[in-house]
Amino acid sequence: MTVTVTEPAAPVTRRVPVSRGYRFELVKLVSQWRIRLLVLACWIAPALFVVGVGQQSTLPSDTLFGRWMLATGWAGPLVVLGFAGTWALPLLTSVVAGDVFASEDRLGTWRHLLVAVRSPRRIFVAKALASLTVILLLVAGLVCSSTAGGLLAVGNRPLVGLDGHLLAPGDAAGRVLFAWVCALAPTLALAAIGLLGSVALGRSPMGLLLPPLVALAMQVAQMLPLPVAVRLALPGYAFISWNGLFTDPVQLAPLLTGVTVSLVWAVLATTLAYLLFVRRDFTNPAYDGSGRRAFTVGLLPLAGLTGLTVAVVAVATPSTGSGIDQDKVQRSLATAFAHLYRMQTGQLHRPAVTEAQLRTTTACTKSDGQAAQEGPGNDWRCVVTWHLPGVAVTGTAVYQLDIGPDGRYVADGDGPKEVNGYFLVRTSTGDTPNPLWQFDGNVDLLGTTSKG
Amino acid sequence: MDILHAVRASGITRCFGDVVALDSVDLDVTQGQIHGLVGPNGAGKTTLLGLLLGLAVPDGGRLEILGTPVERTLAVPDGVAGFVDAPGLYPSLTARQNLAALAGLRGQDARTAGIDDVLDEVGLTDVADDRTRGFSLGMRQRLGLAAALLTRPRLLVLDEPANGLDPAGKRHVHRVLNRLAAEGTSVVLSSHHMDDLEALCAEVTILDTGRVVFSGPLNKLAAENRELDYRLRTSDPQAARRQADGTAGVVRIVDGAPQDSEVLVVRALVPALDELVAGLVRSGVAVRELAPVVSPLEAAFLALTERRENGR
Q1: In this structure, are residues B215 and B27 in contact, taking their beta carbons and an 8 Å threshold?
Q2: Which among A14, A28, A281 has the least Cβ separation from residue B78?
Q3: Who among B66, B91, B102 is closest to A11 (CB)?
Q4: Residues of chain A with C-beta less than 8 angstroms from the C-beta of B93
Q5: Better-scored residue on pLDDT, B253 or A270
């Protein structure tokens, strides 16, 4: 028997727009309890931490700006930023971006998703945008929460910069916000590495671990005495280079270099993840990660990028070696001392004095002059000399400097006690340690050395 | 005069590296037909279903779905729905949220997409607001079917939809598939459950190592088949044994027969079996039960696949 039928209009193939795929991915992400927990933690925990520290007498002075947490509310978000760059942001990106593709492998939902969306490209874009959104939401939580905690617990007061100069509250607010914006660049790089790991390694937990491992490797690299060109060519450097925003003038070159390198990594890693993803055979039942292709398409280009960046930074920047030399250390310490001396004078209600009147100079030696006078180490010893108007005697003070390979240092006062020893200073906002006793500073790794 | 085909595949081949998953496969599925795919593990059923869903394109041959040639991956026309391996569900979402997310993906309003209707149709209304993390395999299968129903498909592709279903779940699924077929939707389903296929399918295709070893109506398969084993329960087992032994073309199976002394197992073609039953009735022995030990489809499946295996 045959049946006569009317031929219907030719069926069409409709692909799902990216906007709908994005909403779908966002719904899936936000429905996961661990993402909800992270959002909650990022929006609450920093405030609790900053408020909690505000109630303590011991401050986290080993973290940058930690020693100023009782002095201004703007130190809180910077302490949180320092911690976030080390631990929180790599972990957040790994949980979000490092799992966004692998979760479909684990759940066995790829075929379902492909049949529904009908475009691997749109799936990739939707997933990348959705994970970016969640990461931005988490980072926004860290910023808002820590800032609110700081301002509520301590107050909107001036912030002492890394060269000792005072930043008015408005100026501090702008720089704090900009520092967080700069930290987004390496966060994006880690997120892109997370996407790459998630695509390349499938359901393997290595995909999830990739961003923290890369971040850890970058941190270890930053702790090693690497040449400055290599240091700046690594995407994690932007987690440090924001420090330069809190000096006067701003250390712009390391900041821009770090941010640019991070963004290039983000773009390249995302592109590689995309290429791996759209070439994947979703019908092969034996698929379990891209294996060799992940190595050739994923790892080699990033290694190549690192080499290329090192070469470009080495050619484009004036600094060689560690970027830390005697002249830079002396200038940095003299500047910071002068600013802080002026601040101390005000706190002790002594006659006002300006940095120019102090004519501060510093003489620093490393290893008592027995070794090369450059590079990081805790064996820098500096003698600071200054003048007071109307006083014939020149003041001198000694500092021990512990300089890290990234240029950040802690200056520890070594006498005389009346100048840079430990004592409490009574201020309008409470008792604070003598600002000249211990303070943080920063050597501009890309700064030029001016002899004489 | 023409018959509208939902699927027209001729000479389809598909390879994964050196492995030939499908080798010159032909498949025709007409509108409103439920077509079964049978085959041992690794026969190529899932690969074929994946091609029908557009997850891949054949390496060779021609594939036409709903009248449209399929030449690119994921380029099957609208109206094709289903799942391979297992339904894609997100455990952190409830059953309703899973369907609502899918409806949203297609631009449908979750309130008017008919989510409650399809949940009711597959018997999941009571667990609509439960997270699918705790769903059994059978519930997941039914929710997968509900997800496919949301699209109002013209071709439904299902891989082992009966897996894990309890009798009530099976009844829901059978009812849905029969209703769809009656409304003109074509269904291609694979299963290892021969009773399901016999209950649902007008035609079956048997695959073995990527090749079609049979394709056609079930009754043709039964006719092509050889002797079957039948369970026979009568009012007088002794008389029945004597009658079976005396009927030409009937062999009484002793090995593997049930311990129950009232039941005997005989092997025969249908005409010889008819002769045995007639003889029993003439002798005044009541026939209380007569049924094949294995279904005709299963017997045919085993015979066809074993024949190939022995021929290797």
Answers
A1: yes
A2: A14
A3: B66
A4: 27-28, 31
A5: A270
> What is the pLDDT at residue A409?
95
User: Which candidate in B74, B137, B157 is best for mutational testing of the A interface (most A CBs within 10 A)?
Assistant: B74
The residue of A111, A124, A279 whose CB has the most chain B CBs within 10 angstroms, and thus the best one to mutate to test that interface, is A111
Residue A88 structural domain: 18-54+61-316
A111 Cβ neighbours under 8 A, 6+ residues apart: A282, A283, B50, B53, B55, B83, B84, B85, B88
Whether A307 and A261 share a structural domain: yes
Structure ipTM: 0.80
* Tokens matching residue A226: 């690497």
- The Cα B2–Cα A414 span in angstroms is 100
Strand locations in A354-427 (E): 361-366, 377-386, 395-403, 408-413, 424-427
Hey, what CATH topology would domain B225-311 get?
Answer: Alpha-Beta Plaits (3.30.70)
What CATH fold (topology level) applies to the domain B5-217?
Rossmann fold (3.40.50)
Chain B residue nearest residue A108, CA to CA: B88
Q: Is B97's CB within 8 Å of A31's CB?
A: yes
Phi, psi of A383 (to 5 degrees): -110, 120
Q: Tell me how many residue pairs between chain A and chain B have CB atoms under 8 A apart.
A: 116
B78–A12 CB contact, under 8 Å = yes
pLDDT at residue A89, rounded to an integer: 92
Report the C-alpha gap between A289 and A152 in whole angstroms. Answer: 49
Q: Are A286 and A143 part of one and the same domain?
A: yes
Model confidence, pTM: 0.85
